[in-house]
C-alpha cells in the first residue's frame, strides 16, 4: 500500500506492485488527477474508518 499525492506517485505504486494506491486530496493533486488510485480520501486520517477498520476492509 502506498499513500500518494500525484499522478507520478500512482504510476510508482502500479509499477512497484505496491498493492493499493491511495490518493490523498489534502496533498498536491485534486480528484481528477488521482482518479486512477484504488481509493481517494480527503486526508491521511481517513484511512481508518469510524468503526476502526481500514478503508479497504469491507467485511
From TrEMBL:
Give the protein's recorded name.
Answer: Uncharacterized protein
Q: What is the lineage of its organism?
A: Bacteria, Bacillati, Bacillota, Bacilli, Bacillales
> Superkingdom of this entry's organism?
Bacteria
Native source organism of the sequence: Paenibacillus albilobatus
